[in-house]
Amino acid sequence: MIAAALLALSASGPGLVDVARAVPDAALDIRYATARNLAGRPLYPAARCLALAPVAERLRRAAAALERKGYRLLLWDCYRPAAVQRELWRARPDRRWVADPARGSDHSRGAAVDASLVSRDGRPVEMPTDHDAFAAAARPDAVAGVSPAAREHRRILRRAMVRAGFRPDRGEWWHFSAPEARGAPLLDVPLSGAGP
């Protein structure tokens, strides 16, 4: 049933689906549609979370596992047009924190998400850092400066995402890539016109 729903959501062309429709209990706080990001200004015309259909299915499975633990998935970023990746690189040309647009980002392939947790009623839970925090505490194995509660929430998120098939990033606890990134083309479809 979910596969049919995802196919119905597929866009003609890049094959992106609206994650908010595929995973309706996910909370969205799309930071690049606001000024709360490393560029300090909105980079997206709309707060949309799009992904390749198999990636949306992985997110649905992760969200179901988190729901059993009493949490909901919070999504900060999903598909990112290649033009926006170039803007982020201009704002912070540092490969430790931003993918070089010459190589591309898995976000621009529709196969990566920046995620966190909220409680069932939508309240943020304590995590090691905020999104795009360029600090040692952003590492997924950081202990210094990270409370036990934040470490536990990070562990719960990571376990659900890994079990759904995502690969965690070595430098950012919130970034997860899906295997569908391998071989997927870089997309530069604007968010206002991508997906359903």
List keywords for this structure.
7 strands; disordered N terminus; Muramoyl-pentapeptide Carboxypeptidase, domain 2; five-stranded mixed beta sheet; 28% helix; 5 helices; alpha+beta
Note down, in words, how this protein is organized.
The structure is a single chain. The protein is an alpha+beta fold. The chain has one domain (2-181): Muramoyl-pentapeptide Carboxypeptidase, domain 2, CATH 3.30.1380.10. 28% of the residues lie in helices and 14% in strands. It contains 5 helices and 7 strands. The protein has helices at residues 2-9, 19-22, 53-68, 82-91, 148-163; strands spanning 16-18, 27-28, 50-52, 71-77, 112-119, 167-168, 175-177. Strands 2-4-5-7-6 form a 5-stranded mixed sheet, with helices on one face. A two-stranded antiparallel sheet has the order 1-3. A hairpin with a 6-residue loop joins strand 6 and strand 7. The model is unreliable at 1-13 (pLDDT under 50).
Overall mean pLDDT stands at 92
Largest sheet: 5 strands, mixed
Query: What is the CATH fold-level name?
Result: Muramoyl-pentapeptide Carboxypeptidase, domain 2
Query: How are strands sequenced across the largest beta sheet?
Result: 2-4-5-7-6
Gyration radius (Cα, Å) is 16 Å
- The low-confidence runs, each spanning 5 or more residues with pLDDT under 50, are 1-13
How many domains make up the 3D coordinates?
A: 1
Put simply, the count of helices is 5
- In the CATH hierarchy, what is the class? Alpha Beta
Strand content: 5-15%
